[in-house]
Design brief:
alpha/beta, Enolase-like, domain 1, TIM Barrel, 2 domains, 7-stranded mixed sheet, 3-stranded antiparallel sheet, 12 helices, globular, binds magnesium ion
């Protein structure tokens, strides 16, 4: 079996998300933004796919250029089942991002599932068919009572856990962007108190300040969260500095979760874990794909550390299906806000990635491979052609 082509198929979607860089995650005017998918074609009629571009503001998905000039020459002619060998080549090359490595790797694991006529997570070694989700809020939703109401609605919907993104690059007092003073920790604590009061003691709560705190702010907020019985404090400081994380992890009782945005796939996770710079690990397929993530999770397991997957998506769900709840407890379902119906299927898919039942569990997709079903009519109608488009076929 050989790979014959690798394509990036780009199309546009309408969104209101991330319209301003400062005031992270603030909702804005409707506009069209590029989205896309990667397609790996083989000579045996089995093709591998992954959705890309979903988190393009922070990550660097495979561009058409990188795909044509670096990824394709590396992959064409190779057996797509030699995933470990291809992963080692891609990581060693360093000419493209770990997100691009992740897209290729996920698409190869999609092929593996399809060859076996099985969901990919069973090929990886199945552990569970569903995973508990937490609602992960947009930041900068409004005053604490807006968060409190939103948390109550989430519990009504079935969520057993709820994660607050409070005020990030946004001034909640004057209600304007705050690029120079990105954090408002005392206001964040007010949000966390209001949410705990709204949902009672049974719901699991977390806070993610998205790295905008100083060390002292992290200590101050962390101590309040301990009183409020929050489960974890996520990624509170700039992750390029590891020493403050080591100190914070020692100083606080609450679980410190990270690193989230640090490049280096499972290598950097190893560095952090062996230095005990967090209590719980974190990674997602944008950092080296399913292959890199599985290595990270095994490393964490050997140290008795949980690894909580960052963001959602088909690749992450395949990983969660092949790990136990003790090792990777939650699925991040978001981002959520009162005006958005998070249960709606994106227009470029025929099946929602992460349908959730009334008990707060997301089902791992059961279709062959990663279980992605594209809406090819939508993709064709909203296609963004480029230099490599001539061979694109709008089909599985
Ligand atoms: Mg986070």
């Amino acid at each position: 079996m050989k790979i014959t082509d690798v394509q990036i198929i780009r199309f546009s979607v309408e969104t209101e998300q991330y319209s301003t860089k400062w005031g992270y995650g603030k909702i804005g005017a409707k506009r069209r933004v590029p989205n896309g998918l990667i397609k790996i074609i083989t000579d045996e009629g089995v093709n591998g796919f992954d959705t890309v571009y979903g988190w393009g503001m922070y990550y660097d998905p495979p561009s058409v250029d990188i795909t044509e000039n670096i990824i394709k020459p590396l992959l064409v002619g190779q057996d797509p089942r030699n995933i470990e060998r291809i992963w080692q080549w891609m990581m060693a090359h360093r000419g493209f991002s770990e997100t691009a490595v992740g897209s290729v790797d996920c698409a190869l694991w999609d092929i593996m599932g399809k060859i076996a006529n099985s969901p990919t997570y069973k090929v990886l070694g199945g552990a569970r068919d569903k995973v508990l989700a937490y609602a992960s809020t947009y930041p900068n939703l409004g005053d604490p009572d807006v968060y409190a109401e939103h948390a109550k609605d989430a519990v009504k919907r079935g969520y057993k856990a709820f994660k607050v993104h409070a005020y990030i690059f946004w001034d909640p007092i004057n209600k304007c962007p705050a690029p120079g003073k990105p954090s408002f920790p005392k206001k964040d604590i007010e949000v966390c108190e209001a949410v705990r009061q709204a949902v009672g003691d049974e719901i699991v709560l977390m806070l993610d300040p998205w790295s905008v705190y100083t060390y002292q702010e992290s200590i101050m907020v962390g101590r309040q969260l301990e009183k409020l019985d929050y489960y974890w404090l996520e990624h509170p400081m700039d992750e390029r500095r590891i020493e403050p994380y080591k100190q914070l992890t020692k100083e606080l009782q609450i679980n410190i979760l990270g690193p989230e945005m640090e490049p280096g796939s499972f290598y950097s996770r190893g560095n952090w874990a062996f230095q005990r710079a967090s209590d719980m690990g974190r990674i997602d397929v944008s950092f080296g794909g399913i292959t890199g993530n599985k290595k990270a999770i095994a490393m964490y397991e050997s140290l008795g550390m949980q690894c909580e997957m960052h963001v959602g998506g088909f690749g992450n769900l395949a990983i969660l299906g092949s790990t136990t709840e003790e090792q990777c407890e939650y699925y991040e379902r978001g981002l959520t806000r009162p005006e958005i119906d998070r249960d709606q299927c994106p227009p470029f898919l025929n099946n929602p990635c992460d349908p959730m039942d009334n008990d707060g569990y997301v089902a791992i997709p059961q279709g062959p491979g990663l279980g992605i079903e594209f809406n090819w009519d939508y993709i064709k109608d909203n296609f963004l052609p480029d230099l490599s488009s001539k061979n694109v076929k709008f089909e599985d």
